[in-house]
Design a protein that fits this description.
Helix 1 runs antiparallel to helix 2, helix 1 runs parallel beside helix 3 and helix 2 runs parallel beside helix 5. This protein is an all-alpha fold.
Length: 122
């Protein structure tokens, strides 16, 4: 039961951070490009990469991994929103934004995970 509560706590923090990021992105940049989803996916990838390195380096306990990895990163990042936003851009025929959005999520997400992993091992 404790594990479920830790995942729920991490998830509440991740979901709240995701929502706040979305509000801030719309306020600063408008709704033309789904930058908030890219931002949370990149940050979540970095955190999960770092967490993986720290797990091996310091043998983090299972509860910490559940709270931060499954809970926080799981709620912060979002593949479903990425998929729907991509489809919306396709429906509007915004092919340049489709390529930038899909490419940005993949390239920057992988780079962030690699950076997190590298920094975690340092």
């Amino acid at each position: 039961m404790r594990a479920f509560l830790l995942v729920a706590l991490g998830g509440a923090l991740g979901a709240s951070a995701r929502y706040a990021t979305g509000l801030l992105a719309v306020r600063l940049l408008g709704r033309g490009f789904p930058v908030a989803t890219v931002a949370v996916n990149v940050v979540g990838s970095f955190v999960l990469g770092w967490l993986l390195a720290e797990t091996h380096r310091y043998a983090l306990d299972e509860e910490t991994k559940l709270a931060l990895g499954t809970g926080l990163c799981g709620a912060l990042t979002t593949f479903s929103t990425f998929s729907v936003e991509t489809l919306r851009l396709i429906e509007r025929g915004q092919w340049g934004l489709v390529l930038a959005y899909v490419g940005g999520n993949i390239v920057f997400g992988l780079a962030a995970a690699a950076l997190g992993l590298t920094l975690g091992k340092a």
